[in-house]
Amino acid sequence: MKIRFGLWAAIAALALSLLCTAASASLAQTVPEGVAAAVVDSRAPGGLGQSEALVAILVPLGSVGAFVVLVCAGFYASYRRDQTRHQTIRAVLERGGEVPAELLRPPTPPRSDLRRGILLIATGGGLIIVLRALVPEPRLWTAGLVPVLLGLGYLLVWKIEPPAPPSAARAGGDRIE
């Protein structure tokens, strides 16, 4: 679960970073050549106003901050889940009971290449649409092809790979997530 959450958090942070970078790049095109947006005087002819300079600084910082928050949230959720499981094991042992095998090694859900493929294709398609509509950069939309092609790879694996036996699917099989 934590690997899946980490993957989606990274994809969301990457998409947010791409949008923020593209927005700051389009804003930076309005800055006179050789002058940084943070030092442009709003009273100078052709200079950026205070709000535009603030946006040029906060947009990249916000994208990096969003990435850090998403990654930290994933680690914290994993930490809390493990902490709860450890408290349950400790309580069972203190009562003198036997710890069930499910608590020591919880079964992993079966791997669903079809679901992953569809989600990645939809994510990539949405990213392509957003980048084409909002960003004036002509080829930036191609960043959306990465999740689309990954999704197509998952669909190909789903189609080619034989289905797992029912007992392996319930126990999570021998696949590593």
Structural commentary:
With 177 residues, the chain is an all-alpha fold. It folds into 2 domains: 1-106, no CATH class; 110-177. Helices cover 68% and strands 0% of the residues. It contains 6 helices and no strands. The model is unreliable at 34-42 and 168-177 (pLDDT under 50).
Task: Describe what is shown at a glance.
This protein has 6 helices and no strands. The protein has helices spanning 2-28, 50-94, 101-104, 113-134, 145-160, 166-171.
Write the layout of secondary structure elements.
Layout: H1 2-28, H2 50-94, H3 101-104, H4 113-134, H5 145-160, H6 166-171
Helix pairs in contact: 1-2, 4-5
Low-pLDDT sequence parts: 34-42, 168-177
Proportion in helices: 55-70%
In sequence order, what are the helices and strands, one letter per element? Answer: HHHHHH
Number of helices: 6
Strand content: under 5%
- As an assembly, this protein is single chain
| Average predicted confidence as pLDDT | 75
Shape: flat
* Helix/strand structural class: mainly alpha
Terminal Cα span? 8 Å
- Round the Cα radius of gyration to an integer and report it: 24 Å
Number of strands: 0
Count of all domains: 2
Largest pleated sheet: none
